[in-house]
Amino acid sequence: MADKKLDTQLVNAGRSKKYTLGAVNSVIQRASSLVFDSVEAKKHATRNRANGELFYGRRGTLTHFSLQQAMCELEGGAGCALFPCGAAAVANSILAFVEQGDHVLMTNTAYEPSQDFCSKILSKLGVTTSWFDPLIGADIVKHLQPNTKIVFLESPGSITMEVHDVPAIVAAVRSVVPDAIIMIDNTWAAGVLFKALDFGIDVSIQAATKYLVGHSDAMIGTAVCNARCWEQLRENAYLMGQMVDADTAYITSRGLRTLGVRLRQHHESSLKVAEWLAEHPQV
């Protein structure tokens, strides 16, 4: 679907008939326990419970699977984990890959709760964090350590809106610590204006509460991963009890359908404000 225009992708993403059951949109399937027709069907579900097979509500229902498929189609990922908010997506994505003695390198313009998680929670687990200037580019190599496990980007940065030179940063990191996991808070780009995984990022995280939901009536976080990281992040999220309810997943899928037109209006309105400010004598 990557060869189609963005609006077409947004309208069609996640609309597989196995999730919609013939309707235009995915069904809202609220469930905890599920009923199976036979013991063999239950065994089949158990074997495939981590791969989009109905098994138990915490693993997801058709509503969740539809949204996860949509996010993978839009961002080009191997899998998508869902979280109750963006902060949970950031925290659990990091936790999935670090252990005592590791080092996290994070941009100093990251969302404040992301920075606080590292300084107040990871520090208790024996994981150190240091910070880099968002405009550092290839000079990020000066901050890399042999034990750097995660390099965390956010572009544009929260509040101050600096934009990373992502290709330069990725190339520099791979040249020094090739096995490091590179993550990005991709909320500002809504996962579609910047296709992070196409630039060598391993995990693209969003506070989908913002642009994807779009109407301030639901909270959800997403983490779309490449094949290298998907299984580990997926299982960590499951073991940490991370999930969203079916109604929130549905609202997010519905929000995708109008994301394109909303982003265009954001662009138009923001440009008018910027042009007005550029001419203002007090600026």
Automatic annotation (TrEMBL):
<comment type="similarity">
    <text>Belongs to the trans-sulfuration enzymes family.</text>
</comment>
<dbReference type="Pfam" id="PF01053">
    <property type="entry name" value="Cys_Met_Meta_PP"/>
</dbReference>
<dbReference type="GO" id="GO:0047804">
    <property type="term" value="F:cysteine-S-conjugate beta-lyase activity"/>
</dbReference>
<comment type="pathway">
    <text>Amino-acid biosynthesis; L-methionine biosynthesis via de novo pathway; L-homocysteine from L-cystathionine: step 1/1.</text>
</comment>
<keyword id="KW-0456">Lyase</keyword>
<dbReference type="GO" id="GO:0030170">
    <property type="term" value="F:pyridoxal phosphate binding"/>
</dbReference>
<dbReference type="InterPro" id="IPR000277">
    <property type="entry name" value="Cys/Met-Metab_PyrdxlP-dep_enz"/>
</dbReference>
<dbReference type="InterPro" id="IPR015421">
    <property type="entry name" value="PyrdxlP-dep_Trfase_major"/>
</dbReference>
<dbReference type="InterPro" id="IPR006233">
    <property type="entry name" value="Cys_b_lyase_bac"/>
</dbReference>
<dbReference type="InterPro" id="IPR054542">
    <property type="entry name" value="Cys_met_metab_PP"/>
</dbReference>
<dbReference type="InterPro" id="IPR015424">
    <property type="entry name" value="PyrdxlP-dep_Trfase"/>
</dbReference>
<protein>
    <submittedName>
        <fullName>Cystathionine beta-lyase</fullName>
        <ecNumber>4.4.1.8</ecNumber>
    </submittedName>
</protein>
<dbReference type="GO" id="GO:0019450">
    <property type="term" value="P:L-cysteine catabolic process to pyruvate"/>
</dbReference>
<dbReference type="GO" id="GO:0019346">
    <property type="term" value="P:transsulfuration"/>
</dbReference>
<keyword id="KW-0663">Pyridoxal phosphate</keyword>
